[in-house]
Amino acid sequence: MAEHTHFLEVRNLSKNYDGGLVPALHDISFTLKSGRIYALMGSSGCGKSTLLNLIGTLDKPDSGEICYEGKTIDTFGNAGEFRKRYLGFVFQFHYLIPVLNLLENVETALLTNPSLSASQRREKARKLLESMGLKSKIESRANKVSGGERQRAAIARALANDPRLVLADEPTGNVDSGTATSILQKMRAYVEKNDATMLIATHDPQVAAIADTHIYMKDGHITEISDNGDEKRREKC
Length: 237
Ligand SMILES: Nc1ncnc2c1ncn2[C@@H]1O[C@H](COP(=O)(O)OP(=O)(O)OP(=O)(O)O)[C@@H](O)[C@H]1O
Ligand SMILES: [Mg+2]
What we know:
By secondary structure, the chain is of the alpha/beta class. It is built from 8 helices and 10 strands.
């Protein structure tokens, strides 16, 4: 397998809310490689979602920069272009469109892909939902399915455009441990197949167990970055 490359670099990122009154991130720096899953951990309010939102270009830092494959975000023309080309985002509070069914929700994400016809979009969305164990719910409206089913549909939607970078905020927050296991297996398979990078903010020990690397945060700082199961990867080489 090819050497994993530095895919994403975060340099000296700081962010405060409410005109500086609420400090959220202080001088955060780290790099992420492709083909890996990173678990971002720390207690409630430590800054995990803030960090994902900045990396996902949903919000702007007060200072510092984020580089994707060596290029700063400005070089993509605009944030929308970057998000379309590279990014899949699973939100902490999943934002499916409630009046659309699950299939339509995933198809919507594929509308930005000009190379797919309507029937190809439908087929791809159907396959993704099936792979998330949602075959029987494809035609159900998003506001008529369970929280865990919505969560899985949101993951299917985030992966629809084959993003190189997947940011997931508590993707297993609303599901039982059996469902979490199956979601995490799908995410792992996705990362390996696409040589993608996944950064998952989580309180869930199951996510920590499957992640390659753990990033610990406290009060807006990174306190530790450590590899999970070095021996497991050495065996694979
Ligand atoms: N939109 C906002 N406006 C003002 N303050 C905010 C905003 N979003 C987050 N904060 C504050 O910034 C800090 C970091 O919040 P953040 O949502 O990043 O934490 P988190 O680690 O994701 O927490 P959780 O585990 O509960 O999801 C907290 O003090 C929070 O109250
Ligand atoms: Mg959060």
